[in-house]
């Protein structure tokens, strides 16, 4: 709130005015400009200055304040970006002005407001300054303007609201059905108009031909701009879409960051919104570079073209930046400055990963750091502390969502990586486009998530006709589309893995239902799955993104359900016959579509309305519902209302019907007719899912919704606690607890890809890694444990290439039956195997394995037992069994390698 102190302003707001009637009384005028400001340009600001000069020179009026009022998002104008961003741009544009301010009132309304209502609001705003000493903080700028003119205003001079507009705005009065005649009369009679002429417009003639305008012509001031400035917001938007420079056309530094469009909850819904933001994101990423800067080589001291954005993504001694240039021309000028250090030892490939060094060796230039981006990490200890200290369960959901959702720079990294892949693909296919899909762009991405990329070799038919009819000769694709996809992905995998810098761990998974390439970018620390011509995935991402914009509860609810499924072991970090995150998204979506009243429309309705759902949102405004209430309703919905054993779910129609008797969980893919996305789930996992939903519904009935000091596991924490679920024990009770038989079973599963003990060339390299793990495991045999405070550790040192292996686990309030173990500098393969082994012990209620960051060699294992044995004893048993498994694996792989070598000989 802002205090006016002892300053009393005497405003007289005219009801019927006659401008210029009293020369000796100066009327103070506040100019109001309404428009989209999409974006604001220099011409918008220039109009205020023109009007101020004209009024002061030719009338008895003085423009002491100017107000910009961006139109509401529900105003149906093509390509209108969110009100939040337009407000930010206008504030930035007026930041250097001492008399123009931005009014958020129109943007904040729940519906589009007529211009006359905005003018009435401006009049009431001035009255409020007079009648009260307190003003909303958003109008501090207006208050400061009034303070500068308090002496004149206190003399009792009249204060008038006038509408400032261009000639095109004035001419819109004649558009049938656009304006009510009473609104036009009130504007020109009560308030008055200041009109700036534009090229090819004749406002004088228009006023003459309009009866209403001619009647009040004395209240209309027509100003001729003798210095033409035809900058148009439409032209600015067109230039931005085409990746053209808009420098010197709009005020500096107020363009919205494209990445914010993905997370802006107030984004204006329209069919092209998702495609536009994707296109701008791709365009910005294509003119970006990853620059690795060594000590003493500051980018600020180098002759670099002007940057639009520069983001520091590094931790440690080396400074690493994602630099986004203002336009393609600036980016190309920068690339011209980059030197080449190609020798016979390296592939001569240009990339947008660039080192800023002087006098370095060839190895230094072509070696890449492993980044550990802080914004990609989740501090689970801090998260659980915040959840425990929250006031309500609903606040816990918000905390979980805010602390686990992807950071905007994490999304920027993934778009940048997508364009690095496109660079490689375009060397073979010059018309190819790579687009991210999945969680990266549908709004549901978590920190440290994988990247899904779809490649389209040709986005549309290219048929450029020339007078001489020359054509490029090309090769026909195989008749089988699957063969074409498999062959193409195989070649692209070889290009990425063998020639492009920093791409490692390339795997070809070509026999899956959807063939993919899996790879890992060593520098950015991001795993990536690549598909080809997967059109349905892109359509699905667009629909879910729009759903996330339509309902504010969707994302927090989804994050809570997804985290619940992960904590109790329903979802797994590796593929298999399990519930996946995509299944969770579909389940939450169907729930919000089918509940009464629905919070999301059926996809068919979305497509039928051409994605124009603002009317649907307007018609489906209900009393505010808390996200925690929807979470409770979600579990009751699937445990009581919908029987997934006999029903199939259809997101296209938001309906259920009886499913085929041979199927388990059935959720139809909304963009692939006849494809059940849950086809991978087996009977055991399906029954676990049903039981988990039922038990979660029971837990929510007694769940405490407000903080309970006596219960550390209140609210969401009780829902996430694995020990509250009996299915975990019953699931394991059917397994044979004989350790040797477990080990043999696990060895067979681990060797399933070898096939009759005959290794392939790519599997031979596993032998060295396995031997290395076996050697390290022997050092754990006599390891003793002692409880240490969190942050300290019990160390055991090995002389394996001078590495230290540290074992630590928390103390504090944790019991000996619920412990976390961290193994430093250890292979992630061991973590997967330990979890695989320990989770099958009947004494273990829960065992989870996490990788704090893919670039760090660290294993984080959490074990909770049924209190019949300590977590430490379980951990020791697991280490011994892992040693046995890898010894056996070593022997069998050694045999396979030997057979392979003999075959070659």
From TrEMBL:
<keyword id="KW-0804">Transcription</keyword>
<feature type="domain" description="Cytidyltransferase-like">
    <location>
        <begin position="34"/>
        <end position="238"/>
    </location>
</feature>
<keyword id="KW-0547">Nucleotide-binding</keyword>
<dbReference type="InterPro" id="IPR043519">
    <property type="entry name" value="NT_sf"/>
</dbReference>
<dbReference type="InterPro" id="IPR022905">
    <property type="entry name" value="Rpo11-like"/>
</dbReference>
<dbReference type="Pfam" id="PF13656">
    <property type="entry name" value="RNA_pol_L_2"/>
</dbReference>
<keyword id="KW-0548">Nucleotidyltransferase</keyword>
<dbReference type="InterPro" id="IPR004821">
    <property type="entry name" value="Cyt_trans-like"/>
</dbReference>
<protein>
    <recommendedName>
        <fullName>Nicotinamide/nicotinic acid mononucleotide adenylyltransferase 3</fullName>
        <ecNumber>2.7.7.1</ecNumber>
        <ecNumber>2.7.7.18</ecNumber>
    </recommendedName>
</protein>
<keyword id="KW-0808">Transferase</keyword>
<dbReference type="InterPro" id="IPR033898">
    <property type="entry name" value="RNAP_AC19"/>
</dbReference>
<keyword id="KW-0067">ATP-binding</keyword>
<dbReference type="GO" id="GO:0004515">
    <property type="term" value="F:nicotinate-nucleotide adenylyltransferase activity"/>
</dbReference>
<dbReference type="InterPro" id="IPR014729">
    <property type="entry name" value="Rossmann-like_a/b/a_fold"/>
</dbReference>
<dbReference type="GO" id="GO:0046983">
    <property type="term" value="F:protein dimerization activity"/>
</dbReference>
<dbReference type="GO" id="GO:0005524">
    <property type="term" value="F:ATP binding"/>
</dbReference>
<dbReference type="Pfam" id="PF01467">
    <property type="entry name" value="CTP_transf_like"/>
</dbReference>
<comment type="pathway">
    <text>Cofactor biosynthesis; NAD(+) biosynthesis; NAD(+) from nicotinamide D-ribonucleotide: step 1/1.</text>
</comment>
<comment type="similarity">
    <text>Belongs to the eukaryotic NMN adenylyltransferase family.</text>
</comment>
<dbReference type="GO" id="GO:0005759">
    <property type="term" value="C:mitochondrial matrix"/>
</dbReference>
<dbReference type="InterPro" id="IPR054708">
    <property type="entry name" value="MTPAP-like_central"/>
</dbReference>
<keyword id="KW-0520">NAD</keyword>
<dbReference type="GO" id="GO:0003899">
    <property type="term" value="F:DNA-directed RNA polymerase activity"/>
</dbReference>
<keyword id="KW-0496">Mitochondrion</keyword>
<dbReference type="GO" id="GO:0009435">
    <property type="term" value="P:NAD+ biosynthetic process"/>
</dbReference>
<keyword id="KW-0240">DNA-directed RNA polymerase</keyword>
<dbReference type="InterPro" id="IPR005248">
    <property type="entry name" value="NadD/NMNAT"/>
</dbReference>
<feature type="domain" description="Poly(A) RNA polymerase mitochondrial-like central palm">
    <location>
        <begin position="394"/>
        <end position="543"/>
    </location>
</feature>
<keyword id="KW-0662">Pyridine nucleotide biosynthesis</keyword>
<comment type="function">
    <text>Catalyzes the formation of NAD(+) from nicotinamide mononucleotide (NMN) and ATP. Can also use the deamidated form; nicotinic acid mononucleotide (NaMN) as substrate with the same efficiency. Can use triazofurin monophosphate (TrMP) as substrate. Can also use GTP and ITP as nucleotide donors. Also catalyzes the reverse reaction, i.e. the pyrophosphorolytic cleavage of NAD(+). For the pyrophosphorolytic activity, can use NAD(+), NADH, NaAD, nicotinic acid adenine dinucleotide phosphate (NHD), nicotinamide guanine dinucleotide (NGD) as substrates.</text>
</comment>
<dbReference type="InterPro" id="IPR036603">
    <property type="entry name" value="RBP11-like"/>
</dbReference>
<dbReference type="GO" id="GO:0006351">
    <property type="term" value="P:DNA-templated transcription"/>
</dbReference>
<dbReference type="InterPro" id="IPR051182">
    <property type="entry name" value="Euk_NMN_adenylyltrnsfrase"/>
</dbReference>
<dbReference type="GO" id="GO:0000309">
    <property type="term" value="F:nicotinamide-nucleotide adenylyltransferase activity"/>
</dbReference>
<dbReference type="GO" id="GO:0000428">
    <property type="term" value="C:DNA-directed RNA polymerase complex"/>
</dbReference>
<comment type="pathway">
    <text>Cofactor biosynthesis; NAD(+) biosynthesis; deamido-NAD(+) from nicotinate D-ribonucleotide: step 1/1.</text>
</comment>
<dbReference type="Pfam" id="PF22600">
    <property type="entry name" value="MTPAP-like_central"/>
</dbReference>
<dbReference type="InterPro" id="IPR009025">
    <property type="entry name" value="RBP11-like_dimer"/>
</dbReference>
<feature type="domain" description="DNA-directed RNA polymerase RBP11-like dimerisation">
    <location>
        <begin position="820"/>
        <end position="891"/>
    </location>
</feature>
<dbReference type="InterPro" id="IPR045094">
    <property type="entry name" value="NMNAT_euk"/>
</dbReference>
<comment type="subunit">
    <text>Homotetramer.</text>
</comment>
